[in-house]
Write a sequence for this structure.
């Protein structure tokens, strides 16, 4: 492939159950902290499970300045908080950026589910007429990107890619294309999802929620744990970032997207392997050069087994040499935000040569026989990190980050 | 930007209130036909006097011969039929899809908010243990794209895009860029949206619908317009790299010559409508296509009867291409079909260039004197080599594509 503009990460903003802001988040991940606790945002007494990865004590008023925080749903609030932190981390004043070449690309699974929940509560109570304009104005998923751009005054490309649990990676991939094509110089890209009774109910009905903790790749794993959060990466054209003397975390070196076209909820493996191979070809790297894989690693029996097989298919013998961990063991599954939060972890791993662990990993599973970095963070060279994400609908996305050198 | 691949349209398919064949839909548009009627997909007594443009007596089984459509909701079934018709039109057989991964880029505003709403209402009324696991897999916003990929064996890039009423145009632009960048050789691009209680009632409560509209449709660009009316459907184009299409001997309908998008960050915080963001999006698309504003022979707009949006769209078109090019609007006949509108507009643009007939704007009596464009209720004879498709959404998204036939 001929020379194309390179894209780097110059800022990270995260709002998660283990920490808000890049430093607190990274310290917590390396310490193996858990953000899982009893669900407080709705009554779970009729459910057989009661835990989740909620962001407790989140106050949007510290972050949402231009818009009114109570005129938007929680996913938008979390996203704006992450974006403000990311811009600050990147040393960028939003008012000083060229609005025409600054855009937003966001992933989400559910958009703003609280708005349809309130719609339903009013409808079921016989108060249909009290549903106001807020439903149409604040519910559709694309308002997350709209709110971000309006809050900061950005007039460039603006899109939401709601590809469920792989959405963050799709949004990052698209943002890198926006920069490579010249449509934008700077993109806010990532994902956001708010804790939702709809999502919780669905996974509970699938029998997919673990009762006590999330144990990816452990023989005795009992399922996933729904969570929430947001992560935004500031992506920037490399020459622009260097010219302004920005601190560069990593380069977004390439990506691959595929579809299983096989089953809505059961992963199949071949599509995931193809996404990894396409991403490696796009970045121009070999499997043995990848120093860290951030797994999708939900903690369900099927996902972790199929994912392990897919990595073997894509990496061959090198699969056994690559450390692969799942930070969902700490955060739970933050849905469309998950791969954006994991992308933040990948860029930090590449920067620091440190890998966050898979916590609660106690008993090896013969069907999951790779190196999952059990329980303790590891110091090891990470030249390249691969971020894997899979979703309902058979959507697969792999994004590769490379250590940046001037 | 050197030596980038040209992208051509090799097929199209659509289903909407006006029919299920592009040529017939275009005939209906040229004859000013519409079929607004009382809703049947939700109880009509919710909104006496409000009419919508449903796909009449829609049965997916009439289009797909084998398989069980029961796992798909209405949005999924509309998308399935739209893709089925498109695949038949472009000649991508199932054997060919097995050897060459074909992808799907689907724009939608709500996917199925009816499925989401019903899933939650059942859990709230009967208890979470009564929510349907099968319905849960359709509550994700990429459900339609995932279901269609499974059905049609589409293993390539599978992306759902949401930017509101501009989603379908965004999908075509995204697909064009993916093919140009060499990330795909061929993609289906378009969108799908169903009429349902949730989106209808929400739109009515936000005063977006023309007050009881009887049998007449909305009145785009008219001085006395009072709002839109809901429509539904699915429409897709097959986009292929030019050399790839030539190699397989495909019939070429048009070129997708350029795409541009922009966002109006003041939409949510200011009250003065301006067409600036749309003008920017159009300018980007023209530059991308290397087509001059004076070369645009027809404009197929997204005007829907909205007081504010039609004014903004007219201002944006006038600012970017002047007042000379004939402009049409199809939503007074198709209804506001949200995510599927963009592809319906693109199809209209292609059929207009092919037949030399530009549909008149049904419902347009007296052109709003504040809107300085050449719009007419009369169907006109045109000779156009370049067509512009524009779309604008209330949240601030704007985009445009240039389609060429030269």
């Amino acid at each position: 492939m001929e020379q194309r503009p390179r894209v780097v990460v110059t800022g990270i903003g995260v709002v998660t159950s283990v920490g808000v802001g890049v430093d607190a988040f990274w310290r917590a991940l390396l310490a193996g902290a858990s953000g899982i606790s009893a669900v407080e945002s709705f009554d779970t007494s009729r459910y057989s499970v009661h835990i989740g990865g909620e962001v407790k004590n989140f106050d949007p008023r510290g972050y949402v300045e231009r818009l009114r925080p109570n005129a938007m749903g929680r996913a938008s609030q979390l996203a704006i908080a992450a974006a403000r932190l990311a811009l600050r981390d990147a040393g960028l004043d939003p008012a000083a950026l060229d609005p025409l070449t600054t855009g937003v690309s966001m992933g989400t699974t559910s958009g703003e589910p609280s708005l349809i929940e309130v719609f339903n509560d009013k409808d079921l109570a016989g108060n249909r007429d009290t549903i106001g304009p807020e439903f149409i104005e604040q519910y559709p998923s694309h308002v997350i990107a709209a709110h971000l751009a309006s809050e900061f005054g950005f007039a460039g490309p603006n899109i939401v890619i709601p590809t469920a649990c792989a959405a963050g990676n799709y949004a990052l991939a698209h943002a890198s294309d926006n920069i490579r094509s010249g449509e934008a110089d700077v993109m806010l890209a990532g994902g956001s999802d708010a804790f939702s009774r709809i999502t919780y109910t669905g996974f509970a009905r699938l029998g997919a929620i673990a009762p006590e903790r999330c144990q990816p790749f452990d023989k005795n794993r009992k399922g996933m744990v729904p969570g929430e959060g947001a992560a935004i990466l500031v992506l920037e054209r490399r020459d622009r970032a260097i010219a302004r003397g920005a601190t560069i975390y990593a380069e977004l070196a390439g990506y691959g997207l595929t579809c299983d076209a096989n089953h809505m909820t059961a992963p199949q493996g071949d599509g995931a392997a193809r996404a990894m191979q396409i991403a490696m070809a796009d970045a121009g790297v070999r499997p043995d050069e990848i120093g860290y894989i951030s797994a999708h690693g939900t903690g369900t029996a099927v996902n972790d087994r199929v994912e392990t097989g897919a990595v073997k298919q894509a990496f061959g013998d090198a699969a056994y040499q690559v450390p692969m961990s799942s930070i969902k063991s700490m955060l739970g599954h933050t849905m469309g935000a998950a791969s954006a939060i994991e992308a933040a972890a990948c860029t930090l791993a590449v920067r620091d040569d440190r890998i966050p662990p898979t916590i609660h990993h106690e008993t090896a599973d013969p069907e999951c026989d790779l190196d999952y970095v059990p329980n303790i963070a590891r110091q090891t060279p990470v030249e390249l990190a691969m971020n894997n994400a899979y979703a309902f609908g058979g959507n697969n996305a792999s994004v590769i980050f490379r250590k940046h050198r001037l | 930007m050197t030596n980038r691949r040209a992208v051509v349209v090799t097929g199209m398919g659509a289903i909407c209130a006006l029919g299920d064949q592009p040529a017939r839909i275009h005939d209906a548009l040229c004859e000013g036909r519409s079929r607004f009627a009382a809703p049947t997909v939700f109880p009509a007594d919710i909104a006496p006097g409000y009419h919508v443009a449903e796909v009449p007596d829609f049965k997916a089984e009439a289009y797909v011969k084998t398989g069980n459509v029961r796992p798909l909701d209405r949005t999924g079934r509309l998308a399935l039929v739209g893709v089925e018709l498109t695949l038949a039109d472009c000649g991508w057989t199932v054997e060919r899809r097995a050897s060459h991964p074909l992808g799907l880029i689907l724009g939608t505003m709500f996917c199925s908010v009816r499925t989401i709403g019903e899933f939650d209402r059942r859990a709230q009324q009967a208890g979470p243990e009564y929510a349907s696991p099968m319905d849960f897999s359709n509550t994700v916003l990429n459900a339609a794209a995932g279901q269609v990929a499974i059905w049609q064996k589409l293993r390539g890039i599978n992306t759902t895009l949401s930017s509101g009423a501009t989603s379908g145009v965004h999908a075509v632009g995204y697909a064009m860029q993916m093919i140009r960048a060499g990330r795909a050789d061929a993609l289906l691009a378009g969108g799908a949206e169903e009429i349902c209680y949730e989106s209808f009632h929400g739109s009515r409560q936000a005063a977006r619908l023309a007050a009881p509209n009887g049998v007449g449709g909305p009145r785009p660009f008219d001085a006395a317009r009072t709002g839109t009316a809901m429509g539904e459907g699915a429409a897709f184009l097959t986009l292929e790299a030019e050399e790839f299409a030539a190699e397989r001997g495909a019939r070429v309908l048009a070129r997708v010559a350029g795409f541009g998008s922009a966002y109006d960050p003041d939409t949510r915080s200011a009250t003065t409508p301006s067409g600036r963001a749309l003008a920017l999006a159009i300018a980007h698309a023209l530059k991308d296509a290397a087509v001059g504003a004076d070369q645009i022979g027809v404009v197929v707009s997204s005007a829907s009867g909205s007081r504010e949006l039609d004014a903004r769209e007219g201002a944006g078109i006038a600012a970017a291409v002047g007042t000379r090019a004939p402009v049409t609007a199809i939503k007074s006949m198709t209804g506001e079909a949200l995510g599927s509108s963009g592809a319906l507009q693109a199809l209209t643009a292609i059929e207009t260039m092919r037949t030399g007939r530009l549909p008149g704007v049904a419902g347009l009596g007296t052109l709003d004197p504040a809107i300085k464009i050449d719009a007419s209720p009369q169907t006109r004879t045109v000779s156009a080599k370049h067509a512009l498709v524009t779309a604008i959404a209330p949240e601030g998204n704007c985009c445009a594509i240039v389609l060429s036939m030269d």
